[in-house]
Amino acid sequence: MKSTINQLITKHWAVFRLIGVMGIMLCLVSLMSLASNTGNKAEVSTATLVVKKDSVASVAAFKKVYRVLMSPRCMNCHPAGDVPLQGDDSHLHTMSPQRGLEGKGVYAMKCSNCHQPTNTPGKNTPPGNPNWHLPPANMKMVFEGRTAHQLAKQLMDPKQNGNKDMKKLIEHADDGLVLAGWNPGEGRTLPPMSHAEFKKAWLTWLSTGAYAPKK
Amino acid sequence: MISLNINDKTYQIDADRDMPLLWAIRDLVGLTGTKFGCGVAQCGACVVHLNGEAVRSCVTKVGRAEGQKVLTIEGLSEHNDHPLQLAWNEISVPQCGYCHSGQLMSAAVLLRENPNPSDEDIDHAMAGNICRCGTYPRIRKAIHMAAELQKQKETTE
């Protein structure tokens, strides 16, 4: 019996070897495909954004984007000076906390000394986020006082937008601090449209050529 | 039970993680040097150090401080001889005194990060600590004096 099996193996060795090699190759291909799929997932957001220039649609989309960016929930942390703004009337932040080099305040007046990782309950209490900060001193990314034209140009200039390329600009719509604008704590108005609407307008603006309005 | 390290001593407290740190420090641990002022991070009376930063304990939850290092006015120095305490005493800075543990804890962070602060630096660091008695000119003077005392202390050590 044993010798019969040995004869069979010897006779068909090439076939067994071929099956083995094919099996290993199949495993390798499957693994590579898995790895490739995982990599693609991160690129989906950028890969799906095909730029098709349309200045009319682009400018229309930016008008929506601009309304959000100039709302207190966004603009208050993009001030023209080195003190953040506060409240729905965008007054200078009480206590005059300073931007500091990294945008996180100075000395005993650092943002996270009052702004906790989450919103503090109650009206007129500090809103929270684990990463609360202003833009840094070397890249202030000012919104306050900018016209729609100026802001659109600024947002597309890596020297003024925090070195963001298209991929990073797309991702920024879902940044933790951006999202915090729609969770501002009690007593603060929301941006003028939902985050989903904002993101749609943002992606439309970018995907139609990121045209700046004339004014 | 939550473990808090306050002034290098460990305390086990039975508290909700969302309890303000100030309540735990004052009511559960019994260190009453830190004061309640506004309860909404507006006045600075409740400032303590959390890992060296001047947090407002009225809005800082106990859960954020768990396992971290908390320093209160009682732990600022071993013999009440921090340069700021000496200067505060020398100049008789406080009037009613209620806000001054917070003032001292904020000033301590300033002096640690900037041993030679200008008037402007002092204003930037201390703008969040309100004093209803208006002792601001003496606070500024005492911080300058403490900076000198700190330098002298460092050269003699």
UniProtKB/TrEMBL annotation, chain A:
Ranges that cross the membrane: 12-35
Keyword flag Transmembrane helix: yes
Record keywords: Membrane, Transmembrane, Transmembrane helix
Alphabetical list of InterPro entries matching this protein: Multihaem_cyt_sf
Listed name of the protein: Cytochrome c domain-containing protein
Automatic annotation (TrEMBL), chain B:
Organism superkingdom: Bacteria
Span of domain 2Fe-2S ferredoxin-type: 1-76
MF term (GO), any: oxidoreductase activity
Swiss-Prot/TrEMBL keywords: 2Fe-2S, Iron, Iron-sulfur, Metal-binding, Oxidoreductase
Record bears the keyword Cytoplasm: no
PANTHER family, per the entry: BLR6218 PROTEIN (PTHR44379:SF2), OXIDOREDUCTASE WITH IRON-SULFUR SUBUNIT (PTHR44379)
Name of the protein in question: Isoquinoline 1-oxidoreductase alpha subunit
